[in-house]
Amino acid sequence: MRTNIIRRQFDEERALYNLQQADVEECTFAGPADGESVLKESRDVNLRKCTFSLRYPLWHVKGFTMEDSAMDELTRAAIWYAKDGVIKESVLGGIKAVRECTGICLENCKIVSQEFGWKSSGIVLKDTDITSEYLFFDSQDVRLEHVKMQGKYSFQYMKDLEIIDSVLDTKDAFWHSENVTVRNSVVKGEYLGWFSDGLTLIDCKISGTQPLCYCKNLKLVNCTMEDTDLSFEYSDVEADVQGHVISIKNPKSGHITVDSVGEVIREEPVMECTGQVIIRGKEETL
Question: What is the value of pTM for the model shown?
Answer without folding.
Answer: 0.95
